[in-house]
Amino acid sequence: MPGVYNLSVDEVVREAEEAHSLGVPALILFGLPETKDEIATGAWEDNGIVQRAARALKREVPEMLLVGDVCLCEYMSHGHCGIVRPTAPQSVGAAVTNPLDVATGYEILNDATLELLTRTSVSLAKAGIDIIAPSDMMDGRVRAIREGLDTAGFENTPILSYAAKFASGFYGPFREAADSAPQFGDRRSYQMDGANIREAMREIELDVEEGADMIMVKPALPYLDVISAARARFDLPLAAYQVSGEYAMIEAAARNQWIDRERVMMESLISIRRAGANIILTYYAKEAARILG
User: Fold this and answer.
1) Ordered per-residue pLDDT tens for the chain, 293 residues
2) Is 165 annotated as catalytic?
3) Which of 82, 147, 158, 250 is 20 to 30 A distant from 126 in Cα terms?
4) Does a structural domain hold residue 142?
5) Is 218 a residue of the active site?
């Protein structure tokens, strides 16, 4: 991903200052912890990397709106978005090993994961995050997070739900950068089938019923029809995420001089807006802001 980097807290502040000066109104934070474990401690501890970054940003760039991605994959040793229980553990040779490393089958513990997602959301809100954005795709997470935020005194903190997050091949560059690819299996059991738009509408409707204030479709370009259908059906603010693979395709083609980079970049963003998205999450935010003036 040319031009995209993992940043330390001080570098994030400088990046936010530049983005704000260009008119970019908000940024979304993802964390890469020093260590990972099986309960995603780095996601919800008060001194986690995103929490530290949020406090620094609110101190140095208070006008910037901060969105906190709430998922556990970057913080889990196994790379899945929830707590994992093996269903068929086995040993290797004479040694007894971690069953997660050698499991031939596993299951995601949905309800147990909700507790960690709620704890993460409250921790982020305390650190200054303005919008909580759960991206894990666990069932019932919006309701659990809403109740947790309300109980902690953050009744006015809105939830931007990754309501239709598809199991996509376009996430590859981000997963490599965040070292968050699953160590076994994949995420198709809890992310959505790209062929099923009716399921997407049901998932969005459930999140709205649970209290989502905004909804998101991810990825964007391969799912413009889903964005359009969601816009026609739901009145909430609608976001679309132009993900790492979409960015990488444009960059690779431009580097091979197959396309006009700036023209295709803007054409891709306009198509997302035309499909009905009010909010676009994109690695091109600064460049688009410069062009739009």
Assistant:
1) 888 889 999 999 999 999 999 999 999 999 999 898 888 898 999 999 999 999 999 999 999 999 999 988 889 887 777 888 777 654 444 443 444 444 447 788 899 999 999 999 999 999 999 999 998 888 999 999 999 999 999 999 999 999 999 988 898 787 676 555 555 555 556 678 899 999 999 999 999 999 999 999 999 999 999 999 999 999 999 999 999 999 999 999 999 999 999 999 999 999 999 999 999 999 999 999 999 98
2) yes
3) 82
4) yes
5) yes
**Domain count for the chain:** 1
Measure the CA–CA gap between 236 and 227, rounded to whole angstroms.
12
Distance from C-alpha of 227 to C-alpha of 239, rounded to nearest angstrom: 8
199 near 192, Cβ under 8 Å?
Answer: yes
Residue 274 inside a domain? The answer is yes
Structural domain includes residue 64? yes
**DSSP H helical ranges for the chain:** 9-22, 41-44, 49-60, 99-102, 110-127, 141-151, 172-178, 197-210, 224-233, 244-255, 261-275, 285-292
Q: How many residues does the chain have?
A: 293
Token couple for 28: 């979304």
Report the CATH number at residue 38.
3.20.20.70
Give a yes or no: residue 1 inside a domain.
no
> Containing domain of residue 251, as a range?
9-81+111-292
d(CA 213, CA 223): 21
Return the amino acid letter for 126: K
In angstroms, the CA 109 to CA 293 distance is 47
Q: Determine the 3-state secondary structure of 64 from DSSP.
A: coil
In sign, the C-alpha dihedral spanning 180, 41, 210, 146 is negative
